[in-house]
Amino acid sequence: MDGVSSTEIALMFAVGTGAILLLVTAIVLFVVFYQKKMLQEQIHRQELETAYQRKMLLATLESQENERSRISKELHDGVGVMIQSVLTNVQALGDRVEADVRHDITEAVTHTHQTLREISFDLMPASLERFGLIHALKELCTRLGKRGSVRLVYTGDDSLSDVSGEQQVLLYRIAQEAVNNAWRHSQATEITVEVSQSQGQLTLRVSDNGRGIPPEVQKQSSGLGLFNLRTRAEVLGATLEFTHLQPSGTGVHVQLATHG
After folding, report:
1. Sheet of strand 190-198: strand arrangement
2. Contact 174, 229 (CB under 8 A)
3. Which residues share a beta bridge with 154?
4. What are the tens digits of pLDDT across the range 68-86?
5. For residues 30 and 34, what is the distance between their CA atoms, to the nearest angstrom?
6. CA of 9: how far to CAs of 2, 20, 62, 127, 245, in Å?
7. Which candidate in 56, 206, 232, 241 could, as Cys together with 178 as Cys, close a disulfide (CB 3.0–4.6 Å)?
8. CB atoms within 10 A of CB 116
9. How many CB atoms lie within 10 A of CB 80?
10. Cβ contact 121:80 at 8 Å
11. Nearest to 260 by CA among 137, 160, 181
């Protein structure tokens, strides 16, 4: 090209190359920024969906607990009083009914009344609403310990702080499910329930000396009440772990962040 020096050509080439590099860089930055923004929006949508699902699940569980509480009170205060009245009337018959017959009727009514009280307790222990989680867990161990040969022990703190009533109900249900699983299926001779709270962390442990839960069963979404355990832990925002204890047994470990 006439009148254009090699220096000018080199300069134009450098400017052109620089412009292309700037354009490529801009495109790359735009793509990276766009992808980052899309990822953030996706995460935000997932968080909103998770929060909504958790809120709906919590509402469902609260509804279930309210219904359990209502039925439990009706059984205890309504049907329970009626059965107690029947028992009193039977005992008042005295010599008008043969002693053996009166004894059999009294025994049957007493057994029915006791079964009714156990059902009422399983639905919603009054001690949980009145005195809180620790008292209810101690009562659970005492009651189940009287039903069979398995020894149940509560150990740990005697009081809690910064744990709401809803959280205590969910923690109780987790402990109740874990205890019932071990009591019914593990062939354990001893089950221990422990609650401790320290440095803003509440820990619930249920351990037994039974045959343990196979790893493949632990991974399943249902069976042996594992689904209920995971669901309530998720609603709580707590971590849930299963551990194999030595020489035998299973540990259910729940950890919840608190402000205590």
Report:
1. 151-156, 190-198, 201-208, 250-257, 239-244
2. yes
3. 193
4. 777 766 766 766 677 777 7
5. 6
6. 12, 16, 78, 91, 79
7. 206
8. 17
9. 16
10. no
11. 160
pTM of the model: 0.67
Give per-residue burial for 25-39: e unless 16+ CB within 10 Å, then b. eeeeeeeeeeeeeee
Q: Measure the CA dihedral 196/164/119/61, to 10°.
A: -120
Are the C-beta atoms of 155 and 193 separated by less than 8 Å? yes
Say if strands 190-198 and 239-244 run parallel, antiparallel, or are unpaired.
unpaired
What burial class does residue 170 get, using C-beta atoms within 10 Å of its C-beta: 0-12 exposed, 13-18 middle, 19+ buried?
buried
Distance CA 98, CA 106 (A): 12
Amino acid found at 206 = V
- In contact, 258 and 201? CB cutoff 8 Å: yes
User: What secondary structure, in 3-state letters, does 20-44 show?
Assistant: HHHHHHHHHHHHHHHHHHHHHHHHH
* Single-letter code of the amino acid located at 107: E
* Residues 132/168, Cβ–Cβ less than 8 Å: yes
User: What is the sign of the dihedral through the CA atoms of 225, 226, 230 and 231?
Assistant: negative
Element holding 220 (H helix, E strand)? none
At residue 255, what is the residue type?
Q
**Integer Cα distance of 179 and 141 in angstroms:** 9
| Per-residue pLDDT tens digits for 92-127 | 766 676 777 767 777 777 777 777 777 777 777 888
